[in-house]
């Protein structure tokens, strides 16, 4: 993509607050964007080949939405955590194994999509986020759901297509969790905490494609609740 094309995109972004450049084979985050750190509310660089997100991402202090789906990111810079106004973060289809230590500082975050990465556990950093609505961790390599999950404030948690065989009973303590998706995992019925059924806020539990028959679940005490 030529410089003139990029320049046109930058001019549009300056007026609209939106910079969208998807599917252009970009291998790096456009440095020229730093001229717009106070203008941009939305950045979408999905379907490119970006391997690194530079520290300058932390300067976009008015950014509300960031999408980098289907790139080649292996890690995220700590500077990302400075984005205090960020509400939506889409990072599906990358190579992420973990989140930055300070990720819990993204205090405005409502929607987080990390489907199709290489996470092995539910990141504890998510538990500090008070405004989370939807967390998508499907298609990762998560094997267990730890005790810290009880602090998660999300309304919907998607863990479909992982390798989960253990879930902490603390999940039934999530104060706002209404939708829990656990389809296509490695769960035995005995590993599903009964308190999810009898003593939680969860109203939709999706567990098709595990190591038990759904009709067995219906026989469990608390299912009717």
TrEMBL record:
Record's keyword terms, sorted: Leucine-rich repeat, Repeat
SUPFAM superfamilies (alphabetical): L domain-like
Record bears the keyword DNA repair: no
InterPro entries assigned to the protein according to its UniProt record, in alphabetical order: Leu-rich_rpt (IPR001611), Leu-rich_rpt_typical-subtyp (IPR003591), LRR_dom_sf (IPR032675), LRR_domain-containing (IPR050216)
Signal peptide start and end residues: none
Coiled-coil annotated spans: none
A GO cellular-component term linked to this record: cytoplasm
Name this protein carries in UniProt: Leucine-rich repeat-containing protein 57
Species assigned in the record: Manacus vitellinus (golden-collared manakin)
Highest classification ranks of the organism: Eukaryota, Metazoa, Chordata, Craniata, Vertebrata
């Amino acid at each position: 993509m030529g410089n003139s094309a990029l320049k046109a995109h930058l001019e549009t972004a300056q007026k609209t607050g939106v910079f969208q450049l998807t599917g252009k084979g970009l291998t790096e985050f456009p440095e020229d964007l730093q001229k717009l750190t106070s203008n941009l509310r939305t950045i979408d660089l999905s379907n490119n080949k970006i391997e690194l997100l530079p520290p300058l991402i932390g300067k976009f202090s008015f950014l509300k939405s960031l999408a980098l789906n289907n790139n080649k990111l292996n890690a995220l810079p700590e500077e990302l955590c400075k984005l205090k106004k960020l509400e939506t973060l889409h990072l599906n289809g990358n190579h992420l194994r973990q989140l930055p230590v300070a990720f819990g500082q993204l205090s405005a975050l409502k929607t987080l999509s990390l489907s199709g990465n290489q996470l092995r556990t539910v990141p504890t950093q998510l538990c500090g986020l008070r405004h989370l609505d939807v967390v998508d961790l499907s298609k990762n390599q998560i094997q267990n759901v730890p005790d810290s999950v009880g602090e998660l404030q999300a309304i919907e948690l998607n863990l479909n297509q992982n390798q989960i065989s253990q879930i902490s009973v603390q999940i039934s303590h999530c104060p706002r969790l209404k939708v829990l998706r656990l389809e296509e995992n490695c769960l035995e019925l005995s590993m599903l905490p009964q308190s999810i059924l009898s003593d939680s806020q969860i109203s939709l539990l999706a567990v098709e494609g595990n190591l038990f028959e759904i009709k067995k679940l219906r026989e469990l005490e608390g299912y009717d609740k």
